[in-house]
C-alpha cells in the first residue's frame, strides 16, 4: 500500500519515465528482448516480493544480471539486431546460465538471511543479559528507588510503608 | 517579712544560727566539695545566717584561704545575673559584691545550680527573722554606722545606674566587732527585685504585690527602703508587730508610710527631716540622692508630710459588711469576693458613690471605662474576675493589678510566670492577662507613672501576638523569656541544668552525653522559645524545619543550630554531644541515594562523632555540592534505568517474534553480497571478453 501510494505520488514524472523507457526499449529492441527473457526470474520475484524495499528482488536481480551480462555484451559488440537476440535466447545453454545465475542469487539471499538472523538473535539475547546486569548494578548503587516502581517522596526517597498507609487512610 | 521568708524561717527555726566555725558542727571539710573556678564550696556546711529567703547560703573558701559563702540560687526565682558586671565595677567597701559567680554541679540534688560567692568578712545581720522590728538605736550611732556608709553606697549605685532592690536590716551586716560601727549592704543578685523585701520596706503599691510580681524598681524605691530601714533601726516600738502584710499595705494607704513606720515614736532634730523626705508616699516629692546629700551637708530641707492626696468620701460605701471611705482601700479588698464586687460595680451604687460622696468624677469615668473594658471580651467565663481587676485598677491607679489570685505589677509578670512554670502552676491567669488586654489596660491607666511604659507596651503586644500562635517557639513559653530577660530555660528536659544562653544549652547536652543520659529529642517548646528570644539568629532560620514532620529536616536543623552555637561560642570540642549527634544523625546518612556514598558517610560519621567538632559533622551531612551531585547522579541513573528497560522491552518483543528477527538485516546484507559478486563477475567477463575477443 505504501509503495502504491508512492507510485501514485510520482504522477507525471513517472509517466514520463515509463514513456522514455518504452521508447528506449523500441529503439534498443534487441537488448530489450534479451534482457526481458534473461531477467524473467527477477521480474517474477520483483512482482511477488513482499520484503521491505524489495531487497530480495535486488539480490536475485544483481546475480541474474551478471548471468545475462556476457550475452548482452556479445550482442552489443557483434550484431545488435533482433535476429541475433532471438538467436541467443533460443539457445538452451543461454537460458540455463542466465537462470542459474538468478538461482545463485536466490541461494545467496536465503543463506545470508539465515546466518545474519541467527547471529542477530544470539546478540539480542546477550544484550538482554547485559541490560539485566546494568539494571542490577544501578539498583545496587542507587537503591530500588531508581526503578521508578517504588512510591517516592519529593526528595526521591521511598515513601515508608506507614506513611503510605496513612496517606491511603 | 515576706511570705517566702516566713516559710523558710519556719523550716529553719529548729536550727541554731551559726556565727562561728564551731557552729558549723565540726563537719569534715574535705568531704564532697564543689569547685567553682578557684573557689571551693562545701555543700555540707550551711550558713543560715546568710540565707536570703529561699536562697540558701553555704560555706566556701577561696584559693588564698579566705572564708567565703555561696548563695545558691533557685531556678524558680530568677536571679539578676545581668547586674553582676555593673555591680562589680562599683568600688565601695560597704557594699557586698560577689567575688565570683557561675553554675556548678551541686551534689546534694544532683543538678547544676547558679551561685554567687561572697567573702565572709562580715558580721551578723542587723536583724534576724523573728526579731522585733524596732531596734531603738541612737541617732548618732545610726548616723555614723548606717547613714553615712549607705549614702555613699547609694551614690555609687546612682552613678552606675544601678538599683539594689533589697535594702532592709535583714540584708545589712555588721562590720566585725560587737559594736555597731558600720554596716555592709548585702546581696541584691540572688533573687528577683524586691522578692525578699518585707512589705514594710516597700511603698504601698509595690508592697501590695506578690513578692515575685513586684518587678523592676526605681532608685527612689531604694531610698524609700533606706528610709524605712532607718525608721526600724531608730524606733523603739513595733506597733505593726501583729499586722500581716496586707494590713500593713492598707495602713500605709490609709495613714501614710511615715505614720505606719514611726507610729508613736517621736524623733526630733535633723533625722526627722530625712525620714519624712525618704518616706514620702508621693514619689514625686520623695527625696532623691541629691536631697539626701544636701541634708548630709547640713542644709535643712522641709519635706511635706502626710498621706497621698486621695479623696475621702463624705458617706461610706458598704462592701462585705464593712464601710469604706476611700476608693483605694475598697480597691484592695474588691477581689475578696468577686461576685459581690461584680454586683457592686455593675450596679449604679459605686458610680454614684464616687460622684456624690467622693466627689471624684474622674474616678467615676475611669470606672465606666473599666466596665466597658471588661465587656470587650464578653460576659463568659472569667468576666467577673476581669471586671473586678479593671475596676480596682480604675479606683486605685498605681496599685498592683489583682487577677485570679495573683497580685502583680506589670514589670513583675515575667518573674511570676517563671516561678509558676517552675512550680507547674496553672498558667491560665497569665495567658488571660495578655489575651484579655488586662496588662495593657493597667499600663494605659498608669502610663505616666511607669518609666518604661513604651517598652512594656511593645512587650505585651509581642506576648499577645505570640499567644495567638501555638507553633513551637511561640506561645506562652516565649512570653516568659520576652518578659524576663534573665530567666533560665525552664524546659523540663533541662531540669537538672541552669541554662542561661545557647552556649549553656550545648554544654548541658555535652554533660548529658558524658553521663549517658541521652534524651529522645533535643528541642521542646521551651528550648525553642528560649533560643528564639535569647538568640534569634541561631534558631530563627530553622523554625520551619524544626516544626516539620519530616525527620530529616528536623535532624538537619538540629545539627545546623548546634554547630552554629559551637562555632560562635568557642566552647571547644564537644566529644560527648558530637558522638550523640552522630548517632542521632545516622538517618541523615540514609538521605543520600548513592549506596557507596552512604557507606563512606557512615564510616566518616563515626570518626567525626569522636572528634567533637559539630561543624565537621554538618559539613559531611549538609554539604550542598555532595547533595546536588548525589541528586543529579540519581536522576541520571533513573533515566538510564528507564532507557535500559525500554530497550529490553523492545528487544524482548522482537525476539519473541522468532523467525522474523534479523531477517531484514540479513536480506540487506545478502543484497550487498550479491551486488558485490555480480560486480566481480561482470568485471571478470568484461576483462576476459576484451582480452580474448570472444567468449562464446
Question: Main attributes?
Answer:
heterodimer; A: 169 residues; mainly alpha; disordered N terminus; disordered C terminus; B: 696 residues; alpha+beta; 6-stranded antiparallel beta sheet; two-stranded antiparallel sheet; 30 helices; elongated
Describe the structure.
The complex is a heterodimer of chains A (169) and B (696). With 169 residues, chain A is mostly helical. Chain A has helices at residues 2-10, 12-27, 29-38, 40-48, 55-77, 82-90, 92-142, 161-168. In chain A, α3 (29-38) packs across α5 (55-77) and α4 packs antiparallel against α5 (55-77). The radius of gyration of chain A is 30 Å and the shape is elongated. Chain A starts with a helix and ends with a helix. Chain B is an alpha+beta fold. Chain B has 30 helices and twelve strands. Chain B has a six-stranded antiparallel sheet, with no helix packed on it. A two-stranded antiparallel ribbon of chain B has the order 7-8. A two-stranded antiparallel sheet of chain B has the order 9-10. In chain B, β7 and β8 (183-185) form a beta hairpin. In chain B, α3 (139-159) runs antiparallel to α5 and α14 (383-395) runs parallel beside α17. The radius of gyration of chain B is 39 Å and the shape is elongated. Chain B starts with a helix and ends with a helix. Residues 1-30 of chain B have low confidence and may be disordered. The chains are: A mainly alpha (169), B alpha+beta (696). At the A-B interface, α5 and α7 of A face α29 and α30 of B.
What does the secondary structure layout of this molecule look like, with pairings?
The complex is a heterodimer of chains A (169) and B (696).
Chain A: H1 2-10, H2 12-27, H3 29-38, H4 40-48, H5 55-77, H6 82-90, H7 92-142, H8 161-168
Chain B: H1 3-12, E1 34-36, E2 39-46, E3 56-61, E4 67-72, H2 84-89, E5 100-106, E6 111-119, H3 139-159, E7 172-174, E8 183-185, H4 204-208, H5 219-234, H6 245-255, H7 257-262, H8 270-278, H9 289-296, E9 317-319, E10 322-324, H10 327-333, H11 338-346, H12 348-357, H13 361-376, H14 383-395, E11 401-403, E12 406-408, H15 413-422, H16 428-435, H17 438-445, H18 453-467, H19 476-483, H20 502-514, H21 525-534, H22 536-539, H23 543-546, H24 551-569, H25 575-584, H26 586-589, H27 595-611, H28 614-621, H29 624-657, H30 663-692
Antiparallel strand pairs in B: 1-2, 2-3, 3-4, 4-6, 5-6, 7-8, 9-10, 11-12
